[in-house]
Amino acid sequence: MSSRLRIVAALLAVTLIAAACGDDDEDAGTTASESTSASASASASESESASASEMAESESASASEMAEEGECAGTYTFESYSGEVEVPRNPETIAVYDMGMLSSLDALGVPLGADDGIATLGAVPDDVQAVVDAMTSLGSVFEPDLEALNALEPDLIVLASRSSAFYPDFVDLGLAPVVDLTSFDDWLPAPGEEAPVNFIDEFERTHRHIGEIFCVQDAVDDMMNDLRETIANVNAAAPDFGNALVLVTTGSEVGAFGPGAFRFGQIYDIYGFGSADDRLAQDETHGEPVSYEYLAETAPDIMFVVDRAAATGQDGQAAAAILDNALVNSTPAAENGNIFYVDSWNWYIVFNGVAGVVGVAEELEAAVGG
Question: Is the pTM of this model over 0.90?
Answer without folding.
Answer: no
